[in-house]
Amino acid sequence: MSARTGTRCDRTAAWKQLQAHYAETGRDFDVREAFAAEGTARFEALSESAPHVFADLSKNRIDARTEELLLALARESGLEAHRDAMFAGEPINGTEDRAVMHFLLRAPADAVTTRKAELAEVHATLDAMLAYAEAVRADHTITDVVNIGIGGSDLGPQMAVLALDAFTAPGKRFHFVSNVDGHELAGVLKGLAPEHTLFVVASKTFTTAETLANAQSAKRWFTQSGGVDVARHFAALTTNVEAARAFGIEKTFGFWDWVGGRYSLWSAIGLPIALAIGAEGFRQMLAGAHAMDEHFRTTPLAQNLPVRLGLLDVWYRNFHGFTSRSIAPYHSALKRLPAYLQQLEMESNGKQVDASGAPLPFGTSPVLWGEPGTNGQHAYFQMLHQGTDVIPLEFVAVREATHELEGHHPKLLANALAQAQALMVGQVDPGGHKNFPGNRPSTFFVLDQLTPASLGAFLAMYEHRVFTSGALWGINSFDQWGVELGKVLARDIEPRLASGDVAGLDPSTAGLLQRLR
Ligand code: F6P
């Protein structure tokens, strides 16, 4: 079942060396002192340029020795072999016996690969999906697109459609319905006319209860409100084309079991993005991600941005013991980025056993959370500056704005820089309340512009970073068994809400069920 070679990180010699390094200089490492000693060389050494993304890691609690040992840890843990196994299409998702090949979705048609047949299918589907997107874009009778999907079938497209608003042709509104809570679908339907609406039912499995309930209700609403042509007004994006057809949807775009849900926005699941930004924009997004794939696949580990980030994550989680990381995109269009990354990281690496099923003696995924800057500054940044816990923060700044409003962008960027600076330098107040301890770590990402290509590259960088920490931890980052138990129990509880039968339930669940009936 385990498709892993290599050594779990805690069983390597480098792990022990890192423990000693942490005890010696890591625990009390002060970034301010490091800058005083190293000067600008520190910024040079601890920043990295990857395709479309620049990252400054120099405000983190690391030095050359830390990185050297972390790189040794990566090598001893077999990171490179595991990465190469993914790119070779080996079944590294051992518990589901599947390959993990989302990178193939963004490979050019003539890419050199041993997976020629799959690549040909990818491009045939991509061409068909993009042709359909262009046809719908040209159809001015369609004014509203409703994506019905949840998790990876919602978060990616929703995040990207918002992020790329500046590249979206006017004339269509995009709505995303994910929650089984009928308030959401009812709220969206209120403003719609069936003859002007396209419903996109997005579900990898086409078995997800929330999505099927919403799709059923949407179809019922469509016919009851006078809609006449289901074939024209519904499309499905799924690996289970048969189930979509059985549901009554003729227009389908498929993908494959080797695309994980949280890695699927590059597949047919990206149709809403293509509807928003067009075929050319979608291809640019894929090209940006592909450039990052190549960076991850071929760049030596020491200059490999996703690797350096993933190693920093291991350092913070397993040596410093930080349980949480915050992300602050300083661009309002990236407002759904934290939610998207939450699924990517926490569903991938929120695991307590290694790939062979053995319990792990160390922590895995941190809690990932955040809000766009500057909003977060006026809410929870207080805790980041003066709270009792150290929470590494990540800034995402975009150098050029796409709006013309005077003065806003310099203010925005100044705030991002100032917050990172304040977290690091702190402030001394002998009176206490105005004391900022400083030495609070942060990473600062810079994109020159927020474009389809830079967004694609940034997201692929994050995927590979999550891959890196997961690989060192020896876990399967590509399954998600932890979501199953709740689904099974919900199926048991739903009829009890109608019948009132609480037999066999624990007293708390029974009491609440009575209260909610
Ligand atoms: O329940 C978790 C999950 O399986 C996610 O991994 C996935 O993105 C989401 O549900 C939606 O699944 P589907 O696309 O099959 O409807």
Detailed description of the structure:
- The strands form two sheets. The protein has a six-stranded mixed sheet with strand order 1-2-11-10-8-9, with helices on both faces. It has a five-stranded parallel sheet with strand order 4-3-5-6-7, sandwiched between helices.
- With 517 residues, it is an alpha/beta fold.
- Helix 4 crosses helix 13 and helix 7 crosses helix 12.
- Helices cover 48% and strands 11% of the residues.
- 47% of the residues are buried.
- The mean pLDDT is 97.
- The protein is built from 19 helices and eleven strands.
- The chain starts with 12 loop residues before the first helix and ends with a helix.
- The protein is globular, with a radius of gyration of 24 Å.
Concise account of the structure shown:
This protein has 517 residues and is α/β, with parallel strands linked by helices.
